[in-house]
Amino acid sequence: MKKLIHIITNTNPGRKLTDVALLAFRIFLSVELIVAHGLKK
Length: 41
Prior knowledge:
It is elongated, with a radius of gyration of 14 Å. The protein contains 2 helices and no strands. With 41 residues, the chain is mainly alpha-helical.
């Protein structure tokens, strides 16, 4: 977790925005898959 924060805080704003957007998208996708499979069972 500290490494992730370190990477995000040490990159330029454009890269930071892209990383945060991708991270948020991956988290959303993971939660969506968990909810979908959880509701099916």
